[in-house]
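dumping this here before i forget
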Amino acid sequence: MAVKYSFTRAIVAGAIALAAATPAFGQDAVEQFYKGKQINIVIGSDVGGGYDSYARLIARYLGNYIPGKPNIVPQNMPGAGSNKAASYVYGLAAKDGTVIGAPQPGAILQPLLGEAPVQHDPSKSIYLGSANSDVYLCLARSDAPAKSFQETFTKEITLGASGQGATTRDLPMMLNNVLGTKLRLVSGYAGTREITLAIERGEVHGICGLGWTSLAATHPDWLTNGTIRILAQETTRGQPDMNKMGVPLALSFAKTDEDRQVMELVYSQGLFGRPYLLPPGVPPERVAALRKAFMAVLQDKDLLADAQKAKLDIEALSGEEVQAMVAKAYALSSNVVARAKQALQQQ
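structure:
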């Protein structure tokens, strides 16, 4: 009996030791893989805009939190409302954890709501998380014909916009189709940087679908020198500073419950405002390590100090949270999706 007991105890002890060693083994494997490697962050916007600013800030510190400390290199791939970058990461990039996508959130809803075919499926992508939730704004130059959001129902203003799938195109298109505003879109700009330059040059009156954080980061002077008026907040919940200023929610102009539901679906992309993702097929242990690193880097004191200087709000969402939000959007009823899809099309 004593021999049998000792043998059984040895087996149990060995199993416990093996179980305890498994995470360490996984960690060692991840570290060995990333040691001496380079991770590319593919940014779906041009240089200088808000999405670019966030991605480059994260790139400076992220490698410190990934086992093996790989070099992080940001690369810009603007085009098609970030769908060019999202499609590259999804279908063409290496699926080994060495390529991270940083698209605009509109690209995540594009396959669900857009007409133009895209080469990626956001419901199958793997999300590392989001750097913050965002509040989108509709704003116009102070000399624009419409001085308030209410006036956009009777006075036409010209807005700069990117391609289908970008918030700067989709959100004002929805306002026209659902609410009946008179927003004339001039599409084809590469990103928000080009649109804001067009506003300064007087080529267009304004922009809708510009993130509050992008405005605060790239043109804080606009808020104090009277260059622009903020006409409305395009979000399901208001931004505290904008609420204090009395800037209305576009949602408050919805005429029916169905109109409100459609707007809420389209605005849901703001909840995962700065998403970072991987293509499907990345090994689970590397996904876990990258998700952990992503959340850790957004608590780095030096990163937070740099973010404060650059006026970039950090409100981290975990990969699991973003994954769940995307899954929820793709599980909505066909009626709501069809109505929202119609609202984003040129009538």
